[in-house]
């Protein structure tokens, strides 16, 4: 079994299951060492001076972006911007190259840093405040709510429109079940690593408290040995992995997106420190539309970015097992399941829906307060307008 692949689900648990600590060494995200591997290339033509794709006069010389986990296709929009002149620093686990958008060199570099074990599992808002070279971070909406009191961030565009989080079940153990409610109706345990998901299901009457099991450790062993359970996962990985990469299972699983049952957060939208929005406003006015288009371009032609992702997985060599098959399946699922789509309210790709943001705040804050992730006083102080902005969105950008 491929334990490293599944370990991400324990470490990438939703905000209520994460311990938010700021006691991390800056050594986890900076280093004086020289890059250890270089790729030749760098043939993209320069962007026309002063054009929307010319970032040289408006952005930092190196735009540093922080992801929340290991390299994977869900982060394709970031990696798709890394030019083929990239270098990999294997000490700090980062990749740097010319920032190439829509086939042209924007005049600045991009550095993409992975999260998870590479940064001692520190949440992205903490990293952004500890190392202020990080301009853009991928911050789940619920994580932004948790961090709002001490490390506030402002989301500037979404990349994934809906969360790929799912619950998985064995169709043979739950015959005829097409939904979570149907699969859980017989009283089966719902195994997760945090309590927001089960509390969400509990509040809707889909399960009772006796079914809540918070012992998920990020591996498939429990599910394989006891296929009566429902277990958390990602629609962009588990269905493929169970059927194709776990020899002890080797057959399809059934699942439903948690976004179908109220898990409405924006997953990993791109965010900036709240105190840096004004500072970076000129850059964001050009960079945000580039990020909007980059996600669309990646999904239309993911091959180069997937090749980079696979190179990073191999070079970083952290025990993170991630195959090209999973990456290609992820792209397919993002499109087929509508995980990535235009904002339903406006038709604009990457834009935030005010009503949805308000409902996220209204629905998730009680869970986060109950779990102790935030205090009641901090919850009362959160203003929905402080969590996001559509100021920099190009409203002409949409998926076909």
From TrEMBL:
Secretion signal, residue range per the UniProt entry: 1-27
Keywords, alphabetical: Signal
Protein name per the record: ABC transporter substrate-binding protein
């Amino acid at each position: 079994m491929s334990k490293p692949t599944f370990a991400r689900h324990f470490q990438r648990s939703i905000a209520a299951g994460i311990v938010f600590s700021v006691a991390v060494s800056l050594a986890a995200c900076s280093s004086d060492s020289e890059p250890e591997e270089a790729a030749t290339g760098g043939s993209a033509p320069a962007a026309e001076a002063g054009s929307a794709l010319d970032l040289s006069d408006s952005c930092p010389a190196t735009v540093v972006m922080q992801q929340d986990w290991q390299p994977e296709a869900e982060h394709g929009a970031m990696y798709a911007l890394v030019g083929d002149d990239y270098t990999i620093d294997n000490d700090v686990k980062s990749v740097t190259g010319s920032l190439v958008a829509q086939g042209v060199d924007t005049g600045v570099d991009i550095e993409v840093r992975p999260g998870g074990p590479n940064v001692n599992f520190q949440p992205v808002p903490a990293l952004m405040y500890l190392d202020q070279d990080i301009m853009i971070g991928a911050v789940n909406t619920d994580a932004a709510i948790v961090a709002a009191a001490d490390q506030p961030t402002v989301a500037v565009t979404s990349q994934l429109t809906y969360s790929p989080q799912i619950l998985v079940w064995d169709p043979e153990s739950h015959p005829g079940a097409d939904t979570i409610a149907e699969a859980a109706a017989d009283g089966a345990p719902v195994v997760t690593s945090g309590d927001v998901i089960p509390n969400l299901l509990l509040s809707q009457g889909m399960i009772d408290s006796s079914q809540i099991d918070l012992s998920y450790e990020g591996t498939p062993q429990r599910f394989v040995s006891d296929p009566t359970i429902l277990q958390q996962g990602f629609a962009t990985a588990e269905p493929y992995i169970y059927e194709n990469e776990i020899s002890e299972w080797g057959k399809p699983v059934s699942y439903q997106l948690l976004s179908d049952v109220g898990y409405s957060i924006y997953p990993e939208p791109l965010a900036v420190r709240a105190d840096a929005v004004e500072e970076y406003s000129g850059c964001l006015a050009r960079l945000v539309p580039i990020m909007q288009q980059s996600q669309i371009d990646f999904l239309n032609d993911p091959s180069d970015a997937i090749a980079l992702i696979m190179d990073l997985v191999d070079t970083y060599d952290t025990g993170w097992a991630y195959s090209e098959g999973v990456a290609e399946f992820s792209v397919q699922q993002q499109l087929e399941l509508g995980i990535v789509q235009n904002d339903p309210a406006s038709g604009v790709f990457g834009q935030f829906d005010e009503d949805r943001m308000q409902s996220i705040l209204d629905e998730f804050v009680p869970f986060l307060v109950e779990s102790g992730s935030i205090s009641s006083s901090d919850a009362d102080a959160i203003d929905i307008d402080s969590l996001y902005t559509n100021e920099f969105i190009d409203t002409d950008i949409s998926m076909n």
